[in-house]
Amino acid sequence: MNAHILDKHVAIVTGASSGIGEATARTLAAQGAAVVLAARRGDRLKAIGESIRHDGGICAEVVADITTPGDAQRTIDAALESFGRLDILVNNAGVMLLGPIVDAPREEWERMIALNLSALLTATHIALPHLLKAAADGPRGVADIVNISSVAGRTARLGSGVYNATKWGVNAFSESLRQEVTKRHVRVSLVEPGAVETELVSHNRPEVQETLQKRFGDIGERLHAQDIADAVDYVVTRPRHVAINEILIRPTQQEM
Q1: Would you call 54 exposed, middle or buried from its count of C-beta atoms within 10 A (0-12, 13-18, 19+)?
Q2: Does 163 fall in a domain?
Q3: Number of domains in the chain
Q4: Of 83, 163, 168, 173, which one is the catalytic site residue?
């Protein structure tokens, strides 16, 4: 692989077994980063890792459920043990379980809070000392945390209450952390997609999927995972003096 801007950098991507996470891992590897792919589906991770290495990239796979603090720690440790440092953390893992609040299955709420918010907080907390060190002595003197949020972190909608709550939490946490560490050259960025063609919607109950089809059926072509990966790539490859704080990306025909 020819020299690229992220040569000698190490990145972790959570939720890397499909969709935005997979596309982001592939894109960062193509830019020269050594990438740790973390997700629960080991078979998918193995196949993606083999594909990245076949294309000349460098990566390691960690089968992990990052809602478990021990697995989050093991993921960070894998980057340090495999590649000696950590420069970029992409908190991508998440789930979107929508529907009315009245009579909602509480386990769906708990799952979203655990993965979308608590796991992101835990992974960030564990990674921060290593990212601060990378910013102080790294090849470009900067480190990055990229949190994949959602347009749902900006606009509350009927039927999305707890999902909205988790993404608003991600946005608030990210901005507070940004103010805390930005002068130490750790950049904290939000990428907020609208409707993306991934398997995220398929995790919902059938009646919710039907409602979502009606809601988004007239928006035309949805975003692709690579569209979001391109945004992450843009964020982490800026020069040291440039911090991209937020990128909101919608399909052209999506109104809200």
Answers
A1: exposed
A2: yes
A3: 1
A4: 163
Angle at 16 between CA 121 and CA 71, to 5 degrees: 50
CATH of the domain at 156: 3.40.50.720
- pLDDT per position as a tens digit, 56-73: 999 999 999 999 999 999
Cβ-contact 10, 83 below 8 angstroms: yes
* Residues with Cβ within 8 Å of residue 95, at least 6 apart in sequence: 111, 112, 115, 116, 200, 203
Nearest alpha carbon to residue 52 among 79, 77, 32, 80? 32
CA angle 16, 18, 21 (to 5 degrees): 40
pLDDT digits (tens, 9 = 90+) for 94-106: 999 999 999 999 9
Whole-structure pTM over 0.90, yes or no?
yes
Respond yes or no: is residue 234 known to be catalytic. Answer: no
- For residue 229, which of 9, 3, 11 has the smallest C-alpha distance? 11
Name the token pair of 73: 């720690």
Low-confidence ranges of the chain (pLDDT < 70): 1-3, 199-205, 209-210, 212-217
Dihedral sign, Cα of residue 135, residue 51, residue 94, residue 251: positive
